[in-house]
Specification:
2 domains; single chain; 10 helices; mainly alpha; two-stranded antiparallel sheet; 6 strands
Length: about 280
């Protein structure tokens, strides 16, 4: 999970590029919507963290269909350039931090909010799995947002992703979750907990953590196991953590994992042999 600034796209002026080479009824509908776009975009921005409370604006059925069609005109030079700019701005999925961005998610779904089909603030570059397998058209549940919004929720300076590890008679137990003591405001924490649950990030991160530890176990054993130089392993884990923090930020599965391990005496004092 990672926040982002908005790309350098000037709204609502950008909408003009989607109208420029259109003809006939499509052009007429887009010109009609263009007159309302400044109000619609200001309306969206004014809700800030409460965008789930926005209600659809009153576009006519032809206008709605035209807006969606304009967004889906992937052969349009203006649309292709727009999409490319968004993907260049966010190249790794901000929802999970795992995969390259391949889809543009309409945070407020275009089927219901066609007026925001081409609004930069509502288009989140993300991976196929987050967009198509998990999020789909959902965005609200029980009067609150379900998903983190990278342009609205500023989380990068907070350690909101937590990893824990413990040893039981049956072996090692690992877990990812949202850190309630991160210092982030309670409303955003509620959103992140729902986001974490609905995208099944715990399960997805644990699989990667298990694979990572399995791959690293021979190296840990070969370099540190025989001589039991735990301080050397601790130093190596600290260095690897600092590299992950610099590359991925606080709220990445590998950073959270290594943050725990570098300070986990039981792990670097031999517990890694059970990984």
């Amino acid at each position: 999970m990672k926040s982002s600034s908005l790309p350098s796209i000037v709204e609502p002026d950008n909408f003009k590029s989607f109208v420029k080479y259109r003809k006939g009824n499509t052009r007429d509908d887009l010109l009609s919507v263009q007159k309302k776009i400044p109000y619609y975009y200001k309306h969206y921005i004014s809700f800030d963290k409460d965008i789930h409370k926005i209600r659809p604006n009153k576009l006519s059925c032809p206008e709605k269909a035209t807006m969606i069609h304009a967004y889906e005109s992937y052969q349009s030079r203006a649309i292709k350039a727009y999409r490319d700019l968004l993907f260049e701005h966010i190249s790794t999925c901000p929802y999970c931090g795992l995969n390259e961005t391949a889809h543009l998610d309409h945070y407020l779904p275009k089927s219901k909010f066609a007026e925001y089909s081409l609004f930069t603030n509502n288009l989140i570059p993300c991976c196929y799995k987050c967009n198509s397998t998990y999020k789909k058209n959902s965005y609200e549940e029980g009067g609150t947002r379900i998903y983190f919004h990278p342009y609205i929720d500023s989380i990068d300076t907070y350690e909101v992703l937590r990893f824990t590890i413990r040893w039981t008679p049956k072996g090692m137990s690992m877990n990812y979750g949202i850190n309630q003591s991160s210092g982030l405001n309670s409303e955003t924490l509620k959103v992140l907990k729902k986001h974490f649950k609905h995208l099944e990030l715990g399960k997805r991160y644990l699989q990667l953590a298990s694979n990572y530890l399995s791959d690293m176990k021979p190296r840990f054993s070969g370099h540190y196991g025989a001589s039991a130089v735990s301080v050397e392993l601790q130093r190596a884990l600290k260095s690897t953590y600092e590299d992950a923090l610099s590359e991925f930020g606080h709220n990445h599965w590998k950073t959270a994992l290594l943050k725990n391990l570098k300070s986990n005496e039981e792990f670097y004092d031999g517990g890694f042999l059970n990984a």
